[in-house]
Write a structure and sequence with these properties.
It contains 13 helices and eight strands. The chain is of the alpha+beta class. It folds into two domains: about 190 residues, no CATH class; about 100 residues, no CATH class. Keywords: Membrane, Transmembrane, Transmembrane helix.
Length: about 350
């Protein structure tokens, strides 16, 4: 009979979620990770980006007041152009009229008068080109025709000018120096399509604004994989049971199983720590400040890819479960058996894929 004194402090009771029946095969591919705690700070990213200025384009419709002011400013020159144009058109029209009368006496001379009668009466009597020297009937008639042509051209010019200015927009580029995060958010809300804020520091390492903290399965932090528990189980394994009436069953409590579990947890911890460290020293490159929604979307996608690549690299442990089944007998029967996790360095890819060796 042996008296075994143990000094175990059960300070890490398993949580309720960990008390569920979970096989090693299910939690091993996940690296014993129950959840990831991530803290992504957009404000820290903005501070590291440190935009010196923000430029945006402000678009305004040209107002009717501006159109009227523009018309009044060019009215003098427009009058000279329209008067010259009207005189030229009347001169051509009179030439064509005389040519038509000389070649065809049957043409109705009153045709043009009938056409002009559709205009308003006061326009017919209007004469903007009165002259004291030219007061004959033919002169007055020509002056009235010139006035009508002038008014038509003037009205058409005004209509075109109003239509053009009403459809035109005025674009102004405005620059905001040293914008704060509050200012940037306000500008992005108002001018998201044209806002550009160049980053003073385009390459920012992830550890400046991201914190990753994985929560492992509590079996990896419990006393079941401690040296004291493994030593105690080793002593129990060496005790011969003489009294067969004792209702004691140590099946599944071989110390080598716990030693194996401890080695797997160490390998998982080391793999996760190395992967997180390598991830955080990578750089996030942006030429311009990106919006908070785009920032979160990119980081979430990147983090999902990181977790997936980490799981893929750790698939060796999943294969190890099958390998352990094949080598179960020599491993269990050897008292000096040990699972040695080794992390070799690859100078080419700068990555450290995990490797596992059985030592007998």
């Amino acid at each position: 009979f042996f008296v075994i004194q143990t000094d175990l402090a059960w300070t890490n009771p398993l949580s309720v979620s960990s008390l569920k029946n979970q096989s090693l095969k299910n939690i091993l591919p996940k690296l014993f990770v129950e959840e990831w705690s991530t803290n992504i700070s957009y404000s820290k990213y903005f501070m590291q980006c440190a935009p010196v200025s923000c430029a945006y384009t402000e678009t305004d419709q040209i107002s009717l007041f501006y159109t009227i002011s523009l018309f009044l400013s060019i009215y003098g020159g427009l009058c000279i152009i329209l008067r010259s144009t009207a005189l030229f058109l009347i001169y051509v029209w009179m030439k064509l009229k005389r040519y038509s009368i000389n070649n065809n006496n049957n043409i109705n001379i009153g045709y043009y008068r009938t056409f002009l009668q559709h205009f308003v009466q006061w326009i017919k009597q209007l004469n903007l080109f009165k002259s004291s020297k030219n007061r004959t009937v033919n002169d007055i008639k020509q002056q009235r025709i010139v006035t009508r042509v002038y008014l038509i051209l003037l009205g058409g010019s005004i209509s075109i000018l109003i239509l053009f200015t009403s459809l035109s927009v005025q674009m102004t580029i405005i620059t905001q120096s040293n914008p704060s995060l509050v200012t940037y958010r306000l500008l992005h809300q108002l001018y998201s399509d044209s806002l550009k804020c160049p980053c003073k520091k385009m390459s920012i390492s992830y550890d400046m604004f991201i914190t990753l903290s994985p929560t492992l399965h509590q079996i990896c932090s419990s006393d079941f994989i401690s040296e004291s528990w493994i030593s105690t189980m080793a002593l129990f394994n060496d005790i011969p049971v003489y009294n067969t009436n004792l209702n004691i069953s140590l099946d599944g409590f071989d110390s080598r199983y716990f030693k194996l579990l401890s080695s797997i947890c160490q390998l998982a911890n080391r793999t996760i720590d190395d992967a997180v460290r390598q991830f955080l020293i990578r750089s996030f490159v942006t030429q311009y400040v990106i919006s908070e929604s785009e920032f979160n979307a990119k980081l979430n996608t990147t983090f999902k890819q990181f977790k997936q690549s980490l799981i893929n690299e750790f698939n060796l442990l999943t294969d190890m479960v099958h390998l352990f089944t094949r080598v179960d007998q020599p491993y269990i029967n050897s008292k000096n058996a040990e699972l040695l996790p080794v992390t070799p360095s690859d100078e080419t890819s700068n990555q450290s894929p995990p490797e596992v060796f059985f030592f007998y």
